[in-house]
């Protein structure tokens, strides 16, 4: 019994040959590559087929975005997406998309700048660090023997990497400021709009509210927009979007099978031509929407006040508009 215990204890204390860490690393790489490939393949497959989701701006713009002319083959969008002109992305997709694209480029740029020193200097020093480790751990900093002068290479790399990254971030920030200033000087109304809530009854009309804010901010008010209760409108819009989706789906089925799809409005009703019925329902719904636009709607106790400058809009947010209790 004692011999078996000693043998079991020795078996559990066998030196690590590094295979465990290597296997974990390889497994992680394989899993991540598989997930990335599936995600990219799914996106490349759906991108040209669901333009209303992946490129809705192109459906609204009069001028086609240059990236919209890409072929529909798999992965044809990757290189042109990274090579897209900043001005095109800014004007067609907005400043948020531009910042995100430049952030991805910055990550790639940082990796390419830091990689040579890591591969040419740090990895060889770690590998021959005489720390007695095996497997993937042999190329880690922990493989360097204690009190070895080779550790200074990592100290230098820490300072070197910090300086390089800070410099790249500084250069990127300067470009961001340029586009940010250009965005703020376009003079779009929503940039200078302030939402005012909890309006008293006497100001729940456009004329009364506009007179009040013009007295507070003379010659600084561009417009006042009262917020209306549009629950009925929102319901009709939801029905409209649902019908449009059904109509597009029916037309897609017809183009693929050359057979007009049918459906039943009720379980026991007769079959109806889906395309004809959806088009008829859309026409009826469009008339309801036009009638709803011309109707008076209840005014909610809030309004959008649009200022002429961003500075005044910012000031209006920070000041008290009424000193009454």
From TrEMBL:
<feature type="transmembrane region" description="Helical">
    <location>
        <begin position="151"/>
        <end position="170"/>
    </location>
</feature>
<protein>
    <submittedName>
        <fullName>Uncharacterized protein</fullName>
    </submittedName>
</protein>
<feature type="compositionally biased region" description="Polar residues">
    <location>
        <begin position="10"/>
        <end position="22"/>
    </location>
</feature>
<dbReference type="InterPro" id="IPR045122">
    <property type="entry name" value="Csc1-like"/>
</dbReference>
<feature type="transmembrane region" description="Helical">
    <location>
        <begin position="106"/>
        <end position="128"/>
    </location>
</feature>
<dbReference type="GO" id="GO:0005886">
    <property type="term" value="C:plasma membrane"/>
</dbReference>
<feature type="transmembrane region" description="Helical">
    <location>
        <begin position="25"/>
        <end position="46"/>
    </location>
</feature>
<dbReference type="InterPro" id="IPR032880">
    <property type="entry name" value="CSC1/OSCA1-like_N"/>
</dbReference>
<feature type="region of interest" description="Disordered">
    <location>
        <begin position="1"/>
        <end position="22"/>
    </location>
</feature>
<keyword id="KW-0812">Transmembrane</keyword>
<keyword id="KW-0472">Membrane</keyword>
<keyword id="KW-1133">Transmembrane helix</keyword>
<dbReference type="InterPro" id="IPR027815">
    <property type="entry name" value="CSC1/OSCA1-like_cyt"/>
</dbReference>
<feature type="domain" description="CSC1/OSCA1-like N-terminal transmembrane">
    <location>
        <begin position="25"/>
        <end position="172"/>
    </location>
</feature>
<feature type="domain" description="CSC1/OSCA1-like cytosolic">
    <location>
        <begin position="191"/>
        <end position="317"/>
    </location>
</feature>
<dbReference type="GO" id="GO:0005227">
    <property type="term" value="F:calcium-activated cation channel activity"/>
</dbReference>
<dbReference type="Pfam" id="PF13967">
    <property type="entry name" value="RSN1_TM"/>
</dbReference>
<dbReference type="Pfam" id="PF14703">
    <property type="entry name" value="PHM7_cyt"/>
</dbReference>
